[in-house]
UniProtKB/TrEMBL annotation:
Official protein name in the record: Acyltransferase family protein
Pfam families the UniProt entry points to: Acyl_transf_3
Domain of life: Bacteria
Keyword Transcription regulation among UniProt keywords: no
Lineage summary: Bacteria, Pseudomonadati, Pseudomonadota, Gammaproteobacteria, Pseudomonadales
Transmembrane segments: 42-62, 83-101, 134-153, 160-178, 184-203, 210-230, 236-256, 268-287, 293-316
Protein species of origin: Pseudomonas lactis
Length: 341
């Protein structure tokens, strides 16, 4: 895994955490410039994730004789166990302490659909979200994995075009015609996966190189574009700047190469993303029922999320992934850190 991408993955995950801190602790009421930034732009971390996902999936499958079935098994082995664990953990916590999760309602059918990555209306009435609401991004991920699996049937040079056509058909033709998942897939955010695939193709051809000043200029320009915003579709407002940010960071890879600390931050980012809402809901409960100040609770939650994610990665993610690979005889030549969400 590119260390520069690991750093960007970690930053994106914590940006989403900051956005949800403002939602759950402050009801999106900002009191300073940093809080305002997290409220308005924190969601852009998801766009960075999607671009990175397209990049990683392309690189992880390049020059490998992967069948669609094997590819999907590898993807499921990587992302499903931790997601299922935190989904079921949330369900148990809701039953044990419903006051801690007042926005969550349990319905067996919805829990099952959530576990199967099938978009459905949340019984709490706030839209098409799974039980663990951050899992909405994984529903898009799973769609992309399925379509990319089909693209593996053609030569590598044509995969981008096959995935692009399939995304268009599913999201803008078949989906609207059959009203799949209440229009969930009709979202231009799916184009950000294709941006990542393009970056992967450029990287494979040695075209993601630039002088230090140019790469830094690209990062500054991307961040400025995200900050400024525009009244355009999300794929343009945040997706294109996220792609510029990713490719600029990749160009800086020689400066990050070999950093174990950055690699560790990136490794833990998936668990950070999955467990942070549970921790923040517990923090909100402490604020509302125990009189703890929100600014006192923020660093406490950050520490709990960081430590929880570290152990979650090493015990839950890494451990279950190795067991599943052994059970199904999946490729052991691909390092775990390269098979990232």
């Amino acid at each position: 895994m590119l260390i520069s991408v690991q750093l960007l993955r970690a930053l994106a995950a914590w940006l989403v955490v900051g956005h949800h801190v403002m939602q759950l602790f402050f009801n999106f009421e900002a009191h300073n410039a940093l809080e305002d930034l997290l409220v308005e732009k924190g969601g852009a971390g998801v766009d960075v994730f999607f671009v990175i996902s397209g990049l990683v999936i392309f690189l992880a499958s390049a020059d490998k004789a992967l069948t669609p079935w094997r590819f999907m098994l590898m993807r499921l082995a990587r992302i499903a166990p931790a997601y299922w664990f935190y989904t079921l953990l949330l369900a148990l916590l809701v039953m044990a302490m419903p006051s801690m999760f007042p926005d969550v309602q349990l319905e067996l059918s919805h829990v099952l659909l959530s576990m199967l990555f099938i978009p459905a209306q949340n019984p709490a009435g706030y839209g098409v979200y799974p039980l663990l609401d951050v899992g909405w991004t994984l529903n898009f991920e799973m769609l992309f994995y399925c379509l990319f699996a089909v693209a593996l049937l053609v030569r590598e040079a044509y995969r981008l075009w096959v995935v692009a056509v399939l995304l268009y058909l599913v999201c803008y033709v078949i989906g609207p015609f059959f009203d799949l998942a209440d229009g969930f897939y009709r979202n231009d955010i799916v184009l950000e996966f294709l941006m990542g695939v393009v970056i992967g193709m450029l990287y494979r051809r040695g075209l993601c190189r630039a002088r230090l000043w140019l790469a830094l200029l690209g990062i500054v320009a991307a961040l400025a574009a995200i900050y400024q915003g525009a009244d355009v579709p999300r794929a343009l407002e945040w997706g294109v700047p996220s792609a510029v940010l990713v490719i600029s960071c990749v160009a800086l890879e020689p400066y990050f190469h070999g950093s174990r600390f950055i690699k560790m931050l990136g490794d833990c980012s998936y668990s950070v993303y999955l467990l942070h809402v549970l921790v923040l809901c517990a923090g909100r409960w402490a604020i509302e029922h125990r009189g703890v100040g929100p600014y006192t609770m923020v660093p406490v939650c950050i520490v709990v999320i960081a430590l929880g994610a570290f152990f979650s990665y090493h015990v839950l993610e890494k451990g279950t992934h190795r067991r599943i690979k052994h059970w199904f005889g999946l490729d052991e030549s691909m390092p775990f850190s390269r098979q990232r969400h």
